[in-house]
Design a protein that fits this description.
Layout (H helix, E strand, L loop, with lengths): L18 E10 H15 L5 H21 L5 E8 L3 E5 L2 H9 L5 E5 L4 H9 L4 E7 L2 E7 L4 E8 L3 H13 L6 E6 L13 E4 L5 H27 L9 E2 L3 H9 L3 E7 H10 L8 E5 L7 H9 L2 E5 L2
Parallel strand pairs: 5-8, 8-9, 11-12
Antiparallel strand pairs: 1-2, 1-4, 2-3, 5-6, 6-7, 10-13, 11-13
Helix pairs in contact: 1-2
Length: 314
């Protein structure tokens, strides 16, 4: 059993941030009891009486569940989603192993939705990019994705040549994607900025900021692909019957008929599409676009084409 079973709760929403998502990792019974009691104390300080009552009742239901199902010898590795009912998922052996490899910590969010996508990404997304953090003469190489990070190497360097060697070592492993190089070191000014697929940021940034740089570069490249496709439409030799425009409903039908080979779609609409189409159907090329400033190609795509365009196989 995997946490994909939690997906059936993805569409639960509330108007206030009262849906509770908790990931507990390697915690003893007494630690979690204290943690929940602390949350109850915080809930009592909420001024909105309706929100206060919901949060209080939900943490209390968690407290009772822990007391009834665990004891002082227990080590807890669980996910809880709490609304008017409590949903419990026990991490399996492989998921517990992942928490140790990536040094994951306890996670708690009260929101208008459950953090199901976050949990699934955390435990099942192993598509990583590489980052080089250079602080003075220390080089730290890590692999990261949106929600986790693992340090691979950490050593001293004296010149930029060592950086080139490490980039080459990574490329030898068939990694062709972007590498983010950042930090506070004079060595950053000596790196050849013309090396393909590297981004240099001359300051210390955190994992989230590193990954945001990567995503921004991907969006820029996607917008360039979009621009080429929109230019094709103006070509008199282009078969417009292969293009699908309209609303998510029409695109959904084409996807479920296995008709599309490419889909250009605004980032916000992609989120909506994933809610109405089973992920098993999304096994073709999807180019996510996002407007970075008024008047850019993605901005006009949203204005003129509703931010969605599919291309059929035939």
């Amino acid at each position: 059993m995997t946490m994909n079973i939690l997906k059936e709760y993805k569409n639960i929403e509330e108007n206030t941030d009262t849906l509770i998502s908790i990931l507990i990792i390697e915690k003893k019974y007494n630690e979690i009891i204290k943690f929940i009691q602390d949350q109850l104390n915080k809930a009592n300080k909420i001024t909105n009486p309706i929100k206060k009552n919901k949060i209080n009742n939900r943490f209390y239901s968690l407290l009772k569940f822990i007391e009834e199902n665990y004891n002082e010898e227990s080590i807890i590795n669980d996910i809880f989603l709490i609304h008017d009912k409590l949903i419990h998922y026990k991490l399996n052996e492989n998921e517990i192993k992942i928490t140790k490899i990536y040094n994951l910590k306890i996670f708690l969010k009260c929101e208008t939705f459950f953090y199901i996508d976050y949990f699934i990404d955390l435990f099942y997304n192993f598509n990583f990019i590489y980052s080089f953090k250079i602080n003075k003469n220390d080089l730290c190489i890590s692999k990261i994705n949106k929600n986790k990070e693992k340090e691979l190497e950490n050593f001293k360097i004296n010149n930029e040549q060592k950086i080139y060697e490490e980039i080459e070592n990574i490329r030898k492993n068939n990694y062709k994607d972007i590498i983010i190089i950042y930090g506070n070191s004079p060595l950053l000014t000596k790196i050849d900025i013309n090396i393909k697929n590297i981004i240099i940021e001359k300051k210390i940034i955190n994992r989230e900021e590193v990954y945001n740089l990567y995503e921004l570069e991907i969006i820029k490249n996607n917008n360039l692909q979009l621009e080429k496709r929109l230019l094709d439409i103006q070509n008199s030799n282009t078969n417009l019957d292969l293009y699908v425009f309209g609303k998510l409903k029409e695109i959904k039908e084409e996807i479920e008929n296995y008709s599309l080979k490419e889909l250009y779609i605004e980032d916000k609409k992609l989120e909506k599409l994933r809610k109405i189409v089973d992920n098993n159907f999304l096994n073709f090329k999807i180019i996510e676009t996002k407007s970075l400033k008024d008047g850019d190609i993605a901005y006009n795509f949203i204005k003129d084409y509703n931010g969605i365009m599919g291309i059929k196989y035939y």
